[in-house]
Amino acid sequence: xxxxxxxxxxxxxxEGATVAFNCTYSNxxxxxxxxxxxxxxxxxxxxxxxxxxxxxxxxxxxxxxRASQYISLLIRDSKLSDSATYLCVVKHGGAxxxxxxxxxxxLAVQP
Amino acid sequence: SAxxxxxxxxxxxxxxxxxxxxxxxxxxxxxxxxxxxxxGQSLTLIATANQGSEATYESGFVIDKFPISxxxxxxxxxxxxxxxxxxxxxxxxSVSPSSNTGxxxxxxxxxxTVL
Lengths: 111, 115
Hints:
Helix content of chain B: under 10%
Number of strands of chain A: 11
Shape of chain B: globular
Radius of gyration of chain A: 14 Å
Radius of gyration of chain B: 13 Å
Shape of chain A: globular
Structural class of chain A: mainly beta
Distance between the termini of chain A: 37 Å
Oligomer: heterodimer
């Protein structure tokens, strides 16, 4: 079983739609959580961190459920430019900053 | 933030040869990492490049196959040795300027094709 699991998609949605991605992690000692975005043939870049209380950044909302070891990302009012692969990322505890990446969920926003 | 330059950006190599990828950061960073992203897969950590000491390898990766150098706090190299087609992948250098945020910055990657 992979340590971080995501639905690979693709999610094909029309512009303006709301779409949600889910992610589960297996290591209960994981301490920090992130969503990264990776455009086609580009390097990953941090989209947002995920806090226990949930957090919002514009059209993006991230939530964490530690009891269920579950992370989500909600995108409202999808734009064409949101088309990318969204990577769920988990950080183990300690000072090593070792990040474990999920395989990513591909989002394609259609005009 | 950090600006990372990797080279080569891409290469096509023959089986059995070796390739060294260079990673240059625009600022001093304690932690540098090398990842691999095979086609259709997510990122897999190869090793942590430690300045002044041997790299720390993840399970499944060994120094003989992926020797790493880290001569200072702004530079590292990864060598892919005795390449086979299974080594065809994107190799990414990354740094973590702050251990508090956990954010990683990545180079643009080196796309390697082994024939």
